[in-house]
Amino acid sequence: xxxxxxxxxxxxxxxxxxxxxxxxxxxxxxxxxxxxxxxxxxxxxxxxxxxxxxxxxxxxxxxxxxxxxxxxxxxxxxxxxxxxxxxxxxxxxxxxxxxxxxxxxxxxxxxxxxxxxxxxxxxxxxxxxxxxxxxxxxxxxxxxxxxxxxxxxxxxxxxxxxxxxxxxxxxxxxxxxxxxxxxxxxxxxxxxxxxxxxxxxxxxxxxxxxxxxxxxxxxxxxxxxxxxxxxxxxxxxxxxxxxxxxxxxxxxxxxxxxxxxxxxxxxxxxxxxxxxxxxxxxxxxxxxxxxxxxxxxxxxxxxxxxxxxxxxxxxxxxxxxxxxxxxxxxxxxxxxxxxxxxxxxxxxxxxxxxxxxxxxxxxxxxxxxxxxxxxxxxxxxxxxxxxxxxxxxxxxxxxxxxxxxxxxxxxxxxxxxxxxxxxxxxxxxxxxxxxxxxxxxxxxxxxxxxxxxxxxxxxxxxxxxxxxxxxxxxxxxxxxxxxxxxxxxxxxxxxxxxxxxxxxxxxxxxxxxxxxxxxxxxxxxxxxxxxxxxxxxxxxxxxxxxxxxxxx
Length: 552
Known about the structure:
D-Maltodextrin-Binding Protein, domain 2; Rossmann fold; 3 domains
């Protein structure tokens, strides 16, 4: 957004909010249901005095402000969490209509590129601002000779990454708005685009983008897990994190001295999140009035100061005081893609061409308890990942990805590995994706559950693959089970096995999926030990397999 236009819009929004506040000072709050709590999941139907909001999970840090807002305005905010781009899809498709009254993502820029999505928004009120930035470990900053980081460009960061001098973690841009903002920022900076980013700009920037992404050593579907992975990484393996300025400054509060981050805002420009609380056209008049009372409150100067001090984001209300930790100078806003086609093309290029390729092992429970509907659900969910109708490159196996399927029950039944080729060549990815699907559909249920033996075999498979290829890939294991390990190695045996692994293999995360009567304690223990994350596939295996793609 043009900075001058942005400032004018904010002034208009502030004036409108003040008018609304004046008009609503005598509004009664007696219609608030006494049982409505902010911690409740949004109800399926609208409730008086409640705003059901679909939001990015980073807004959890707004809880204290919203509790205060509830007391002042009588409006209770109830959140349902989602990734920003997934949330945009929900709005555009109409799946949010009637289910939510408002959405609150870090940015609406991607959503507004779609005419159907833009038409679903009745009103947008930016509440706070934070630019995407690079948090560099202080020791690495000194080694690079970047002083305090105040004069660093995106090109310098890319050069350091391609030279092997800077490694970093970044959230998956197809899931997380911070990752997408980073992708847009570097594409705009490297192309020198002076206006809306075009397909030609993306092509021009591609060689520099490939070099930049050689430095990405951690990927994630969420900022929270990314921060945890950064703190787990052995000393020096990951020298930086790319995220919003506010996230990096907040993270420093919990980091050890040797892991502290210096926040670098590249001087050639940034892409910022303005966190617009946005009313959906499907909201009723009652919810529209609740929205107006809430936004008027959030834009008050003293509340803006409180938000800034609590979240380390910048105020949007003129005259509001920013938190002392925030630098007073601003960076120019880099151009955003001019169309949805350009944005999705950039995302697909990242997944299939620009980023480091993946090595993924799926350890699949095909014991007797999976017979019938459960096995059919597994086949359908994994089969979806072999489809070719994915414009963002997020819900199918990527070009250049190495995929291994391990079917297990009382023992490992079979293991089959597929290498998905790049698009544009002969053969293309379609034939290999079909071959993966054929193996998925051949899964058959029979036997017990030797979970830990099978998991150990997954590490051995990866070790053989890495030694044979001699490459450096994003590597992960996905474990899906509907029961409890009842044969073979125990959890203690697996811990001993894992403790004995070299540093590289030991850092490979396992992402267990709970399904059916799976033993949550066993799966959580595996996730904790390996640095992975437990997912619940009970409601939707389709959704959870796609969600895990952001971590691979």
